[in-house]
Amino acid sequence: MTDLTNLTLTETLDGLKNKQFSATEVTQSYIKSMEANRRLNAYVLETPEVALTQAKEADTRYANGTNKALDGIPMGIKDLFCTKGIRTTACSHILDNFIPQYESTVTQNLLNAGISILGKLNMDEFAMGGSNETSYFGPVINPYKADNSDADLVAGGSSGGSAAAVSANMCVAATGTDTGGSIRQPSALCGVTGIKPTYGRCSRYGIMAFASSLDQAGPIAKSVKDCALLLNVMAGHDDKDSTSATVAVPDFTQLIGKDIRGLKIGIPAEYRPDGLNAEIAKLWDDGIAMLKARGAEIVNISLPHTKYALAAYYIIAPAEASSNLARYDGVRYGLRVEGNGLDEMYINTRSEGFGKEVKRRIMIGTYVLSAGYYDAYYLKAQKVRRLIRNDFIEAFKKCDMILTPTSPTPAFPIGDKSMQDNPINMYLNDVFTVSVNLAGLPGMSIPMGLSEHGLPLGLQLIGQAFDEQRIFQVASALEQDAAFKRK
Ligand code: GLN
Description:
Elements: H1 9-17, H2 23-36, E1 43-46, H3 48-64, E2 74-78, H4 105-112, E3 116-121, H5 160-167, E4 173-178, H6 184-190, E5 193-196, E6 216-221, H7 224-234, E7 264-268, H8 278-293, E8 297-301, H9 309-324, H10 342-353, H11 356-369, H12 374-395, E9 401-405, H13 417-421, H14 423-427, H15 434-439, E10 443-450, E11 456-462, H16 468-482
Parallel strand pairs: 2-3, 2-4, 7-8, 7-9
Antiparallel strand pairs: 1-3, 4-6, 5-6, 5-10, 9-11, 10-11
Helix pairs in contact: 2-3, 5-6, 9-11, 9-12
Bound molecules: glutamine.
């Protein structure tokens, strides 16, 4: 039998339905792979016994014909999603041994559809980072290496564990979250497919908040169709999240494989700065040529406020984070470091519990929200955010969808000095992704090819709000033409 862990979600479901193998067999294969690839540090908690119990239940349903949409699919869950009875830490010391009493809506939806949980996946601490190096559990190692160096490379962040685990066949698919690029960037760097849906498409209930007006959950998987099947289940209105949209969830697989002739694809001039990496520029040109060859119309567009997006994001996201993270005080969850009185206990707990990057964000956030600076920074950033959103509204009068690179470079070595010494260098990696979150739009990364030294590169499709269906349509065309093969 072929290695079951090589199969996509779509292929795995077919095999299960046709009784070629059982859910238990699939799960056992993934547990082996999870154990064999521990070097990558993709999982921070393995739950093989949970997965096997769930797989057994799935097998019973297959036997009596009551199987559900994703029955018997073993998944990894980003450690930002609360999972009832299973340790959830956001990869922060401050949540040491926190065991949630309840399940996040997105994971509950997946469980209701029959998935099994292999474990919790590594991530940047509280999803703050672009390389998965801020995790309390240490960095995730990219399954790929450059052909001219033996250095371990970053998996991208913040959903680095999710992307690496899917890439290395340590799960069929994974959940991710994306506040400024955390689904799309690690997907691009690890050669897998991931979509950040429209803000409000998936419930945020039970997902630890980073920046509430930007956070959105989505799938990371081995193919475009796999992502669509997952989003079908993950999405939907939830009474427990007032920002989850009361919009119907269509069948996201419906337009996959359909002709894209006549669709207008926008190419934003501002995403091709002077210093753009030549390999990335070529990848983008190739993608444009593929869509053109299929009869799509290529339209030059402008998103004039793009140059302010990073600055606005790195004010708004820390501002919201500083407020959201106020709840970790040593009283209610996780770590508590005693002191002389209440104030000292707070100080000791937060000093020891949070990592360096999280502390930096809390300080920036508190600063930009403080009296006297609020107008100059926070309010100004909110106004810029509106202008960025307006740019997209204008652009979508001329095109149906936008094609851009996902990340400005391929994966770089873990501990890269230029990144560590100046956090702004790391923030610059988000240049192609943050605008999408600021505008609340859906964005998807599709693996399109390899760099000169054999590292995966991705392109991003940005759609109109709640138009994920057409993203999947165009993404599947790119997927077919690029024919990217995971290692
Ligand atoms: N790299 C960005 C940041 O550090 C985005 C992170 C995310 O999307 N969660 O804020």
